[in-house]
Amino acid sequence: MRRALDLAREGIGLTSPNPAVGAVIVDAKGQVAGSDFHTYAGVKHAEVLAIEQAGERSRGATLYLNLEPCSHHGRTGPCAEAVIAAGIRRVFASIQDPNPEVSGRGFQRLREAGIDVHVGLEAEKAKQLNEAFAKYVRTKLPLVILKAGMTLDGKIAPPPEENAVSAPGAGGSSGGWITSEEARTHVQQLRHASDAIMVGVGTVLADDPLLTDRTGLPRRRRLLRVILDSRLRLPLESKVAQSAADHEDVLVFCSFPDEKRKAELQAHGIRVEQVPLAWPDGRPDMHRAMKRLGDLAITSVLVEGGAMVNWAVLEGRLVDKVFLYYAPKILAGTGSVPFAGGRGFSNMQEAAYVKRFRLHRFGEDFAVEGYLRDPYGEE
Fold first, then answer.
1. Which regions of the chain are under pLDDT 70?
2. Residues 47, 122, 315, 369: which is the catalytic one?
């Protein structure tokens, strides 16, 4: 099963909006007869690819995979039927399909055919691997991960009045990076696993980031760079604008569309869409923005700030998960930029509550990974 999970992880960046699935077939003699993983472009699912490798050795064999075999017609035929036809005797699967319309039906079909089915092996790892798929297939909304790098006292930039270019960004242009190279390398892994990255235009104005996936690993589609820019202030000379790829990978959400400015951005290959205001703060409605991303089959969004965007997704109860990196530094000062701005929650009962958290170490830094709500809807 661990081998199946490792194979599934090879599909990260290649499967969305489908789940990442790996499959291993062990023949009647206890030898691996076939193994493979799913990619969206490859069409065939992991079980079918593994069965094709195993051939006749599939008869009487055991299949290990991290997700329930599908039982419905999609881009391919039902995998459960392929497993039955191959003569597989036992199936070990980590979790049920989170799609409420099909969940459990694949297992039911296998059992009806006399196959011995076991569910739950390495379930937690399997659930985390496909949490974006789980959220999207249930709600048609993306999994929202709030990521930030900050000091121990929760600051993401020095006071603006002390550094003219500092702002609620990553810290690259505001007197040096806050977090370590090890932590920033891990951020790239988060980007690679995401369909989209979201920032406010203030971050672009302050830091001029590229906002790309720099892992060098293959992707099925480009990382969508989403800019919240109510008044279309995105500079045409910014790295984001200069690197836009024919309306494919930069999307600007605005609320006050100046038609001339909109035409200029579109001429640079940037997609511009209007979303209503979220009164009373005059910013784009985050709920409508997330709904639009879901309509575009974006299954996961990595929110990277700055402070007002962080507050907007927290206030809107849109965050599913946080990944917060802390450096062993204290910036102090009431003027330093906090991780989340805005008015804040008024009391501890309203405060966002992080559950099932884990700690990670990256060089001198550490990170808190945790959930504000369950992507599988089980809490």
1. 73-75, 161-175, 279-282
2. 47
